[in-house]
Every structure is written in structure tokens, then in C-alpha cells.
User: Fold these one by one.
Assistant:
Number 1:
Amino acid sequence: MGYTDAVLERFRRLAHAAQPEDVPEAQGEAGERARGSCVQILVWQVPGERDGALARVRFRALGCPALLVAADLACERLEGCVPAALAAIEPRALHAELGLPVEKLGQVLLVEDAARRCLEVLRAEQDN
Amino acid sequence: MSAVTPIYLDHAASTPLAPEVISAMHAVLSDPALCANPSSTGHVAGRRAAALVARARAQIAGVVGAAPAQVIFTSGATESDNLAVLGVARGSAWRGRHVVSSKTEHRAVLDALDRLEHEGFSVTRLDPGPLGRITPDALADALREDTVLVSLMHVNNETGAINDIAALGAVCRQAGVPLHVDAAQSVGKLPLDLQSLAVDLLSINAHKVNGPKGVGALVLSPAARRRIEPLLFGGGQEGALRPGTLATHQVVGMAEALVLAAQRREREYRRLQGLRLAFWEALAAAGGVICNSPLDEHGSPWILNVSFEGVVGESLRLALEGVAVSGGSACNSASGEGSYVLRSLGRSDLLAESALRFSFGRDTDEGLLARATVDVFAALRRLRPIAPAEGAPAVVHRPGASG
């Protein structure tokens, strides 16, 4: 699989990978671990506000490099945004920015699904 | 791009040229007197080139226990596989239209079989046993009145599992069906003597044993020669079975590589058997590591296939910047499917996705494998913590949330 320099460089760092001890306020998951492709988006809000900005966004993932770097880039973009941004990821834009092979678009769509579910969980928690 | 030369553990994909091979090929390439077409035997320059080709053909035949006339040069094992499978099936179609093979063959055979099915042939693809080998009983059960060819590999290119081609050949000979063996991963590495084996067609190459890429051969019995049709047309070379001008330097390089490999075969077998076992034991210490290769005499010492729990092979391979290895498969993001070979052996999709193939060669030694082990452990320490824990709850904690 040929990856771009942008992918290789981001894969080396994966600066937004969660630490094992991280405990988020909410997380959303997509994909199937049993098939070797699943991703979680984890978020922490600025305290005290229902729509407070996402102070910290991290990911956990089991998958190919495309999934890992797409999740990493999505987390980077989401930090500092309002929670609604979790439902506004543009997978094709991420896919294009990273220069991923066309057959890897599905991996970026998984990241989109995980972020959307994360928002649903966050809202449900806030409504409780 | 790193300036550091990676630890090369991908010899089942290809190998560096041996210095002796470079010298032999260079001698041909640099001598203007050897530039002629080896088919141009009407002049002395052509006859010189033809003599080199004849010598190479005899050397290669000697390595596999065949007569020189049985060796047909091709562009590599893929072409040899295609020629054997398509050529014999098509040439025997008047007798029957059934072919037997296995699910773990190389794509060069599997895709040729798909082609035959499009042409109206029926194909039986045998499941391997737990060790990845095809049993003689399973083969015997699959043979039919209209079977015109059996195609089975000698050594599996992903796991290194060794088929007992002597026993499989005996089944075929009993039934009067020609056996084609893809020996791309075994020629020069395991004993191959066509005088004692009931093998009618043998696909071989050179670049897995420190020879040049772009050249191979199909070695075929006189009986198979009578049944095979060419795939290419346009000249009388190679008995009109594989027309095209022969590349003298390539066939000379192939012969040199195979002769060298045959001379070193037994010593290399013993050396790599020990190294492979020690490497496996070192990797196993990481925990969550599953060996997909037979580690006994049923596995090639040149190949070790390992699944690593908690990572996907493609990511592990990319994280191993200092080690050149192959994945068990290319990640198929649409289906999530891993290696078809490993899945045929009963491995889950996840384990098939998490496999790496380490393959060894002449330059592989204890020091290189120790360095590779360190790199693998470091990559696992980096990637495994990123993977979600199995069965993790969707919401773990929300500060201040009322219960």
C-alpha cells in the first residue's frame, strides 16, 4: 500500500492517540474489532457549559494506517470546536487532505461514524 | 526517507543478487561478442550466445533432476504457472474439463483457474489440513474421470507449509493425471529431483535464491509437453512453446543462482532452521503472538508467519520502519478480509489481518534477527495501547453527571 508523506509523518507521531489511563467524558465507537477495523473517539469538554468547547479529543483504534491517521487528523481538527462539530466531519475532505488511496475511504467513514456516535452519547449524558 | 538500511526479512518476495551471479551476468552483458541473439546460430556470435544458453539450461536441469530439453525459459514463475495451468488444461480439453488445485495457491495459479472457469472448466479447490498441507487422501477423493490437471504448490509462499509432493505425485500418477508444482519458494532450498518425483510440470524462478528477476522456467515431462498449448505466438523459440528472444544474461544469472543455492542447500537449511526457531521463541515472548507456520520438518525454514494480537499487520509493518517484511495480506478495507491463505487455515479475520511474514536468506544472521526483535517489540509497545480494549463501555466517566 503506497501512502503519502503526510500519512507517514502523521503515523509516526499519532499525537492524538489516547493513553491507556485516559477516561473520557464521552466516547463513540464504530467498526468491528473482530474484523480488524474499529475506532473510538473520546472527548472532554470545557467544564460547566452544555455546549462548551471540546477541550480535548483523542482516539483509540485497531486498524490499518489509514484509519489511525484519519482518526488522528479528525481529533486534531475537533479540538477547540463546539460539540456539534462531531457531527460535521467531512470524510472526503480528510481523505483528500491525507492523500489516502481511494479504497481507504471506508476507513475515514468509520471515523465520521464514531464521532457522530460520540456526540449522541455526549448529548444523552447531558440530558440525564 | 531513512538513510539507515532496513533489516531485510522479505526474502520470500525477492532476494539480493549474489556477487557470483552479478559477475556471471556482467561477463555476458559487458562482452560485445556475446550480444547476439542466441537463436541466430547462423553466425559465430549467435552460436556463442546459444552455447551459454545451452550451458545454463543444462545447469538448471541438473539442479532439478531433469533433462535440458525439458527446461522452457519464461519471464518468471507467474508466467510458468499460467503456461502450465492454462496450457495443459486447454491442450487437454478434448479429454476432460476438470482441474484440481487448492485454496492456498499463489495468485498466479488461482487467477489462471478463474480464467479456466470462465472458459467452461470445472475447478475443485481443496481445503488444506490444519498444518496448511494438502493430504493425498483429499487429492485422491477430488480426482474425477474428466480431471486433466492437478496444480499444487510445493511450499506455501505465506506460511512456508511444505506439501508432500512425492505422495501427491504418486496419487496423480496412479490416476494418470499430470501434476503441476509451483516450486517458486522451494527450488534451490528443498530437494527436487524430477527423476524420482511424479511431477510433470515444475514452475521455478531465480530471484528467491539470489538470482535475477524477470526470468524463470517451466520444466515439463515429455508427456506434459505433448498436452500443453502455448500462450504466446510469434516465433519458434523454446520449442515454439514460449516464443521470444531469450535474454542470455538472465538465463546465465538464473543458472548461476540455482547452482549456488543447490550447493549451499543443506547447510542453509540447517542454519535457518535454528535461526527461525530462535526468532520465533524471541517473538513469542511479546505475548499474544500466534505462529502460522509449521515449525517442524513440514515447514520451510526460510519463512515464519506470525499473527500479533492487538494490532493490524499493515500498521505494524508501517511502524517497523527499520525492518522490511511482508504482511500476511494486503488490507482490504472494503471487506475487512485478511489473507485468504490464513483464513483457509481457520484463522479468524482478525488474526489473518494481524499477520506478518518474516522470510530469511543468505544474509540473515542472529544479529539481524535480534535487532528485528527489538524493533518488533517497540512497535507493539507503541500500537497495542492505541487499540480499544475488548468490550469497553461506550461511556466511561462523566464528571458531575447525576446518576
Number 2:
Amino acid sequence: MTLELRIVEKRVGAETHIHPTSVVMEDGSFNVLLGTTLAGKTTLMQLMAGIQKPTAGEIWFRGRNVTHVPVQKRNVSMVYQQFINYPNLSVFDNIASPLRVAGMDRKEIERRVGAAAELLRLAPMLQRRPSELSGGQQQRTAIARAVVKDSDLILLDEPLANLDYKLREELRDELPKLFAGRKAVVVYATTEPAEALLFGGNTATLHEGRITQFGGTAETYRNPHDLITAQVFSDPPINVTPVRKTATKLTVFGTVTWPAPKRLAKLPDGAYSLALRPHHVLPAGRAGAAGSFTGRVLVTEISGSESVIHVATPEGTWVSHSHGVHPFAIGAEARLHADLDHALFFDSTGARVM
Amino acid sequence: MRKTVNQKAWFLVLPVFLLVAFNALIPLMTVVNYSVQETFGDNVFTWAGVRWFEEVLRSDNFWNALQRQLLFTGLVLAIEIPLGLAIALTMPKKGFWVSVCLVLMSLPLLIPWNVVGAMWNIMALPEIGLLGKAINSLGINYNYTRQPVSAWFTLVLMDVWHWTSLVALLCYAGLVSIPDAYYQAAKVDGARRWAVFRYIQLPKLRHVLTIAVLLRFMDSFMIYTEPQVMTGGGPGSATTFLSIDLVKKGIGQFDLGPAAAMSIIYFLIILALSWLFYTLMMRNQEN
């Protein structure tokens, strides 16, 4: 184990930014912090780096208590959402800056900067200034600065958020390769569930200053332990409705009754929340079948080969995300099919029961 | 494809054209008119060619005033720019004291120029003024109406008091606009305070500093009111700057031709030097 937060808490005045949190991240692992804006991703990273000090709790790194060790002495590097480079230094000098601060000799600096530039395809523009580069190249420079020294901890705070779509995809492909085979603990903050799924590794879902769940990315996605985790880790947003289970029947939206799937046999009768990801709600089905319901169409977003249909139900908007083009007139009644085999059930406290 | 031409658009430009015409072009052309003609009043003009220009460029008064002007502006810039920057760097970035600082800093800028002159005039009086009396009681012989050095000292001090705030406020605005992430990144790199200033703050402030230098250069090069109220250009002609010399010529002696010629030369000097400053500071940035 290497990076360990032990009941770390951060309060600023009367506000609690990070509730007591414990988490362990291994050497060489890629860890995604997933959460909306203000969920506490940046604060958590700054605590890990030592830019902020926790109000309570301890931070351990490779068996050493580093809670009070300032960031300069921790061998950390960080990449931000904004493209942060020294404006009047060339790309070469920018990448070299952490090595120069560390007092490395010239030959070694040149070798390392060359390698980092090669890796990030910056070799042809080493003599340029950041202002002469495109946004993507500026961010590559910042990333090169982060990887050029052998940091123990590399923090990336929404590094792709300010890039346009194409460049974002390009860098998104390259980033995991860049960190593969390194000994460092890599932490990557993002607001996008899709990004977490693409990167794999581990994911911690954050909500209002708490880590709701931490584990393998695919596992966290498929097996959320509570409703909030399921909500944070779903885009488009996961569909939720109160459901009442009585013997072999499920009543949803107040009026619609479905036969309960067999796997629910052991679930005691009572009130629950049913959550279903949009790609398990498809425009199909016939009246009376299990999982079938209707709703008034609010919006349809049709992109080439996929349809996203928003319908009004008595319990708020539900979203269906399906392959193929399914045009619906706005205001029309749409019949949708909820795939109950994939439905998640939560009790009144939000804990997963099935 | 044919473009539709709408001549009515000219009417929209008319107000700004009239404004510029009346407040810049017409006065300027009047000055040009005076500078190449001889007049004894009654609107009778005779052609004088470049005679007035020659006269101005041959006069010792002009060259002496220009030298004093350059020295004054040089001193003022050399003090106010670094001092303003230093003040901006030490000002708090958030909290209660921000507004206190901002109000205090803007006070000198709100005082009318002749009042600034009058204020310092009284304050620097060697017998009863707070500043004058204090300096004299230190054993330094100080009298700004008699000694050129004292007069210069007082004028420069007054200008620094009056205008450093402007530089400080400009720099402060520039500093506040640097995203926090830059400072964090520097901290992560282990950069020292000096490196943060040299590699983050200074480059990010370059535009603001260019504006500050230009504004202070132009304003101090045209300074009139304060020295006029304070010293009237004396003792002797020790603090007779270009503008004071110009007003003496134009309104005191009613030498309209030479005064007009001098105005144009004065204007061209400011234009040339401003262009020089701007180009130098901007080129620095590109390289």
C-alpha cells in the first residue's frame, strides 16, 4: 500500500468540505475521482498533495506519516484544468523546470526532457513559448512537466475539461498509456462517468465531500452499494422511481403493476427505490408485459445511430438511451420497456438491497 | 454576388466624427495654422514657413526645458513603477482589508491636481509646513522656493505620492487575475518566492505594466498644474518643464507662432517616445 488517507477531514469555518474519509491507493494504480462540480474532488487532491492540510486525520505515504510534510518535499506533480505553464519560458524550459529546481545536471535534464517531449509529441516545438501553442499542446506541455520527474504521486485535476472534443479524445487515449508501468500513484479527477469507464483502474465516487464508494471502476459501475453512487456514476442520469413490492407484484409510478422478477423472491414486501440506467430502458414492448410503461415525450435527441428519449412519468423524467433512430413527436405517448433484470433496488436509506 | 450598399450608415458615424473633429482635429489644425503663420491680431495672418520651428529648435529655453522634462519623467517612472508594483504585491488578495486598501490607494487619485499642488505647497513651507519644518529640524537646510534641489525633491515626492496609487491599482488588478492554480503549480514545483515573481507574476503583468508605463510617461511628460501651483517653474527656471515653458510663451508673452510650433514638436516627442516604449515592451514579450 502506498497512499493512505486515515479518517481525513477538512473543515473551513463552519463548512465541512471533506467528511472523514479513509482510502488506500496502491503504487502504480490509476484512480479516478468521479463527482460533480463542488463534490470535493479538488480539495481531496490538494489534501493528498499537501497543498492543504487536513483539519483532522492523517495522510501516510509508503509507510511514512506525511500529514505535515509540505508539498515541495513530497515529490508530487499536478496537472490542472487550466493550462498552467510558465508564460515566458520555452516549452523545453517549462518541462525542465521541476528538474532544475531539483538541481539535476544538464545532460540528464536534456535526456529526460527529450524523452518526455517524445512521449507527448512535443519534440518539434521545444523552442516555442506556451502562447504560441494550441490548447492541446499547452496541456501536453503541462502533462510533460508532470511526468518528467519521477513523482510518487501524480494528480490530474480535470485536465481535459478545457480541451475541445477531438483533442480530448486524443489525449484520453494516450493518458493511460503514459502512466502504465510507472510506480507512481495516479489520481485523476473528472465529472464524466464515461471518462472513468474508459480509463478503467479504480474509481472513487464523490458526493458532497464524501467518498460514497471506492473500488475497481467496472465493479463500482455495475455494483453500486447505494443510490447516490449509482446516480453519480451514470450519464445520462440514472432513472429512479419509488416501487412497492407486494408478494409477486411490483407497483411503480403509483399505478403501473408488473410481475416481480424471480430474483426478488427473497426481498421482503415494502417500499423501495428502483433505479435503472437509461440504456436499459428501450422504446419497445406491449401493454401489460413486465417492465412496460408509457410516458409523454418531452425531448428526443437523435444522434446518427443513437436515440435519447426523455419522457414524463408521474415520478419525474425518465430517460431512454437506445441504438437506432427512434423518432417520437414531442408530446406523443411513448411506450417504453424497462429491463427489470438490470434494475437496482435500494431501501429507504439509499442502501442497495438487490 | 452583389453587395447592398447602405449609405445611411454614414449617419451613424457622424456623431463620433463631429466629436473627434471638434475636440481633436479642429484644435490641432488651428495649432498647425498658427505654427506656420505670423499674426498681430485682428485675424490678419502672413505666411511664416518653418521660421517658428527653427526659432524653437534654436532656443536654449526649449532644450533646457526638454532636458528637465526628461529627467523628471525618468525619475518619476523609475520610482513609481517599482514602488507601485511592490505595493500591489503586498496588498491582501481577499478579506476585509482589500476594500480598506483599495479606498486608501485611490484617495490621492481623487484629489484635483491644483489642490494637490496647493496642499504640498503649504506642507513643504520651511517655516510652518509639516514636511518643510520636519526636514529643517533634522538639520538639513531645506527651502523649495530658494534651492533647486529642494524644489526637485518636493516635486518628485509629490508626484510619487499622487500617482504611485495608479500603478499599484493597475498591478493589483493584474495580480488578482492570475489563477490560483499558477501559484499552486509553482508550490508543487518547489519554486521560491523570487521565482514565482520572476516566472509567473512578472510575465503575467507585462500588459498591465506596459499600460502603467505609458500612462505615467504621458501624464508626467505633460505635467503642468502641480509644479505651476507649487513652484511656478522656479526657483529661477529650475523646474520649468516643457508645459510651463509653453504656457509662458503662448499666454505670458503671446508669442502664438513659436508656441504653436513648440506644441507640435512637444506632441511629436510624446508620440515618438510612446511608440518606442510600446514597441520595446511588446517586442520583449514576443521573443
Number 3:
Amino acid sequence: MVSTSINMTENQLNPASWVDQYADYLFNYAVARVSDAEIAKDLVQETFLAGLKSAKNYQGAATERTWLIAILKRKVIDYYRKINSKKGKAEVRINYSSQSDSAGDWLEENVADPFSTLENDQIENAELGQAIQECISKLPKKQSAVFVMKTIRGLSTEDICNELGINPSNLWVMVHRARTNLMGCLNENWFKL
Amino acid sequence: MINCEKASTICNKKQYKEATLFEQIQLGFHLLYCKACAAFSKKNKKLTILCERAYLHNLSELEKEKMKEKIEHNI
């Protein structure tokens, strides 16, 4: 294993732990933006590889996480560029000029409803997802493992106990600690609603 | 009568729909007179709602292993 980026600042890259530390966080970020799990997974993978490639350019000015997110952002943009270049150019008309024009799917009929708040909800939920994911990544390893298996993957208590080799009362203690930590970590704002 | 520790465990179980009816009644009674647990219970419920609303996604261990391999390969 090679230790990359020899600098004297406190921020250092440690690619060997990237997947454990950031994969879920990055994945959540990507899923919220491309809304396709497979594509999101590929983007995260590409981000890690791109990170390795440009590790020597890492100045240590930002934390590892911020740096990786910045790369992922570019990857998401590149992804949309790519799928857009494949499509034909969209045709926008101000008015229908003839009867035949009114048939078919026109872009202006698909514009967002200005009174809809759905999009805002989606953006807010994406932010919420990131906030939660960030808090989960700060949990002690065992707590986060139990919490993720229980809450996100929805596994049964029995399955988790078997997989981790703990007993149910142990599990509930872990869940309790994880949940209390998360309540403390999640910004108060989220609890106001 | 149950103590606060038991109450919080039941409350956590309830978030995953794993508390029995009897436990839920015990908890409900405890919450009537214990302000601290009532506050915890409220926050805990909220956390559950937040987690649901965030629609969290996670990569499976298998997918993570594959990613790790690829990274190791490229280091």
C-alpha cells in the first residue's frame, strides 16, 4: 500500500479507507442527482479512481470528503453533458403556428408548474439525506453498522445478530446509542418541523 | 411499572415496529409521568420520519468490496 500525498498539513489522503468512509455518502449524493442507483454507483467508482489519479495534486486545503465531493460534482455534470449530447436538440416554439403543430409532445407543455412545491421537497430531502449520511459516517463503526443494517437496509433483528455475532439486547443498546448520537448530530433545524 | 432504560428500549423497538402491544402500553403509561422520556420519544419518532423522508440509499457490502478491489488495483 502506498501512502499518497506527503504534506505537513492535517488533511491527508488515505485511499485505502475511502470506500468505508465515503462510499455511502457519495452514493447518496449521486443518487439524489441522477436518480438511478446503477449510474450513481458507477459515478462513485469513477470518482474514487479519478481521486487516485489526481492524488498528487491534492493540496490538503480541503478535507478528503470535500475534495471527493468536488470530483463527484464534476462527474455528475459530465454525465449530464454526455447524455445530452446524444439527444437531438430540443425544439421550443413560442406559439403553435398551425393546427398540426398542436399535436404531439411539446416542451412548453412540460414546463414545471410554478406553484408546485414538489421540487423543493426533493431538494430538501436530498440535503436531508446528505446530512444524515454525514452524521452516520461520524458514528463509531459498530453503531453505524447496526444502524445502517436496521434502518436503511431494513434487516431483521435476528439477521443482524447472526451477522454481527451479538445478542438482541446488545443490538438495542447499539441502536439506542446510534439514534441518540444522530439526534445530537443532526442540525436542530431538522427537528423543528 | 418500567424504568427509563426499559422505556427507551421499547421506544427504539417501536421505531422499527418491533415492540409488542404489551410493551407499547407499558411505554404509553411511562410517558404519562416521565417528561424526559416523553421528550426523547418525540425526538426519536421525528428521527424515524426524517430517515424515511430522506429515502436513504446504501451500497451493499459486496458492491463496496468490488470498489475496494478496483482502488487497490489502481493505487
Number 4:
Amino acid sequence: MHPTDFTLRGAIEALNEGLLTSVELTQAHLDAITALNPRLNAYVTVTAEQALAQAKASDARRAAGVAGPLEGVPLAIKDLFCTAGVRTTAGSRILDNFIPPYESTVSGNLLRDGAVFLGKVNLDEFAMGSSNTTSAFGPVENPWSRANDPDTRLVPGGSSGGSAAAVAARLALGATATDTGGSIRQPAAFCGIAGIKPTYGRCSRFGIVAFASSLDQAGPVARTVEDCAILLRSMAGFDPKDSTSADVPVPDFAAACARGVKGLRIGVPKEYRLEGTPPEIEALWEQGLAWLREQGAETVEISLPHTKYALPTYYIVAPAEASSNLARYDGVRFGRREKGADLKDLYERTRAAGFGAEVRRRIMIGTYVLSAGYYDAYYLKAQKIRALIKRDFDQAFANVDAIVTPATPSAAFGMDEKQDDPVTMYLNDVFTVTANLAGLPGLSVPSGLDAQGLPLGLQVIGRAFDEETVFAVGNAIEQAADFTALPRLRAGA
Amino acid sequence: MSLDTATVRRIASLARIRLEEPEVPRMQAELNGILGWIEQLQAVDTEGVEPMAGGGAVSLRMREDAVTDGGIPEQVLANAPDREGEYFGVPKVVE
């Protein structure tokens, strides 16, 4: 067995049994990155020396009998998490020289638990995008391709496209990611892996480059649901440095995976049956519900009446918060600076040169909806509809334990598709964005293939802070789906 | 609601993003496309609904108003594009 083929849990067991060392495991992943990253462009920065030093230190800790829960496990870190002394770009030209003097809480938690960092992975600029084509460091390629059309390069989804592509191609055992409207779940689905956006407040946002603060949440992507559960336990936890961090206990998520679904009530929202959804996705959804019924769950039709307003609501709330958050990139304290005749000219030239087209567009929308005379009509209206969307879920969860939907309205698309009209790209997040608006956990599980051999995912949404039920349902789907297909581009292939 | 070119220029100025004149029509068309799509929200009855401001149900907590960090000017200035001593350098603001 090639060391990059281990699941994260399998790797931990192999390390514990002395079948290999963290140095060997880390070197195998670094070799895989050297071989495949020139094509995939998943990593923006590879920290090979640091990774091997961490692996060596980890092996020493294990030998001394003080192994942490993730001792010696090589991971990729989305380049939105600040890493002390390692360049953190957010996929933007405006931060292409930024070296944080501090560590994000989430990545710090992973280091505390013994993880090894292979490097920083690519993303849509400031996490704004659904295809990883807006990165200033070039697009990421999906390691999967269509069976009948292997030459068309596909997107990995976004914004966490580098995280998902790296894990799918076996260039890391797991990765950190973030999700503001679907940025963990959509790329996970496109790349045939699992990914969870936990409840808002579950993971600290401290040290994560902010996009839309009331929606942003960190979470893991990995090749199995259980691997996500193991990673989330380390990533999560109360942090006084984030005022919205929830002071609640972090359960053993991995233990919850094996709970089973017997007796659970699974909601099936009728508003998620969208016209134009490919029949394969409808069929997979039905199949997923049948699997759950076979394992003792009951499926119940529910109504989330404000679903169709979720995306337009998001495209007011998220750009508004982004326009405020991104005001800090002014060329004065960090990042790129362009010369200007005076201070305003310096700001304007710096921001025009430093931000890409999609980021500029969203800042403009956000500035407009917050501007004098329009705030009530747009921003306040959107906040009220957001409250109605959350109320829909509150009412649904009075009768069901979890909700199951498709993860995405399509499989991965070509790199040159859907690039002409921003709204067409935004529709990728139609099934995922509601969980961000309502602050709920959502898990994407690889569940099947389309006719062209591309992976499709199902999404499990749960009650706030009930990731355990989400993991139990996701694990049940994963077991029944027995998803064993592999991408064409992968280490060891 | 449709934005005219003067409004597009005003928003760019408010956002402190330099917009070259040839870029204005394209930005105008894209913004109007997005705003036209968002317009459907006006049809939703939100009478008496409390706006949802944050992302979570947990209410914000209070903390002691105490200094917990500081005294690290070199770290704060480490990424500065321009500095003079312990200050960020910018073009002259006051004549």
C-alpha cells in the first residue's frame, strides 16, 4: 500500500503500530506534491523543510509516549488561515507578500494535536468563488475528469478548491477549509471527498482572513466522513479571541459516526426539487433516502418556504460584510502598495491593482447596498429574510433530526464554463447557502457518480451544535454508497 | 433599480477602488445584472420580522475591559510597505 493511500484514521493507526514513521509519511506526500502539483496547482506554497522538521519532532514525541490525537499526520492548510512565519495570501495579489506574525486558532489547534503542515493550498481570491478560477495564483484543476472526455480540464469547485483537489489527489490526508456559502461542501462534492461546515461559532475565526464574518466558518475536508470527524474535534473549541466563538463542549465526533440512523427522522425539503436539476442528481437523492430508510430511519417531506430567496439574500449580506472587512487592504499597514499622488489615490490604485475582478465586483455591490439611502431597501431587508430562512429551519427541526439534500446542482464543470455571467456561477451554492444563513452544520458526502464518471455528493444539514447526528447520517450514507471510485490524477496511480 | 454611470463612479470612489473610464460600462452591466436578480427580495413580506444580524444564536458575551496584548511594535510593523521608526509611512496628508 502506498503511504498516500491511507485514510487519516488508517495513517494514525499505522503510525501507532510503528508500520511507518511520520517522516516517511510526510516525505511520501511531499514527493506526490512534487509530481502532481505542477499540473493541479493545488498548493500555493509548499513548506517541505518545515514539514519534515515537524514530522521528525512528531516521531520523537511518539517515541517518548506523548502522541497527540493527530500526531504526525500531514495536512494541507487553506491559504486563508494565517500561519506564523509562512506567507498567507488569501489567493490575492494584494497579500502576495504577507507573512503573518501569528497563527490562526484553528491551525494552532491542529499543531497542538501533533499535525504536520505540508503547505498552503489554493483558493478563490478571498474565498469568493465556486470554481477556484479567481485565484491570483492561477486556477486549480480537479483531479477527476469525464470518462468520455478526459482532455477537458474541470474545476475542483470553490472556494476551497485547493483543499479538495489536494485531498482527492492524495497530496494530503486532510485539509482545512472555510465555508461562507458552500465553499467546503461544493468542492468536496466536485472532488469526491467529504467536507463539513460546522455550526457557526464551533471553530474560532481568529486568524482566518475574513470574508463575511456572520457566515464564515472553518471546517475540514478529508476522504471519509470519519476523517472529517477526527479533524473537526481538533479544529473546534472555544476561543476568547473570537467574540462569536461558542463556549460549548466539543464532543467526540468520530464516536458519533457509528451511532447509526435507526429511529431518526430525516427531512426532505420539497423546495429543493429544482427545475433543471439533472435526473442523476434527483435519482441519487432518492437513493440516499432509500439507504437511510433501509438502515431504520424515517424520511419525511418538509417545507422550507423561503429557500428560493436564500441566494439573493446571501448576495446582499456577504458582499456587504466583505466590503467592510476588505476595507483594511489599503496599502498602508501590510500587503501590496501602489504609488499615489495623495493618500486617496494611493488607496484607490492599490485596491484596483491588488483585487481581482470578482472581489472588486463584490466590494462594489456591498458598498452600494450599505450606502446612504439604500441600506433599508437592501441590507435590512436581507437581514429580515435571513431571519425567515432561519425560522423555516427552526420549524422543520421541531419534527426532524436531520435534513438530506443534494450537495450541488451539477457535477464539476469545465474550467472555461460558467465564467461569463456572475449570477450563473452564484447558482452553484443553491443547496448549500441556506445552512450558512441559518448558522447550521452541513456535511457533504461522496455518494455516487454521474454518467460521465464524475462524483456527486449528498448534503446532511443538522440542528445547531448537533454535528454528531450529522456525522451519524453522513456515515450511514457513506457506508451504503460504498464510494470507491478514484480520480484519474492521484499519487501512486 | 438600475445604476447609471455616475452612480457606478460614486460607488467606486466610496469603495476606494480606482475605476478607469473604459471599465465603467462593463462594471455597470455586471452590477445591474446582480441587482436585478436581487430585486426579487422586495416581493417577500417581512412585516414585523426582526432582522437577523449575526450568524449564531449565541448572544455576544461581555469581557473585562483590560489590555491583553501589546508591546510588539516590530511584529505589528513587520509587513508594512513603508515605515519610519515605529510608524507606518504614508504620502503627506496635511500640507
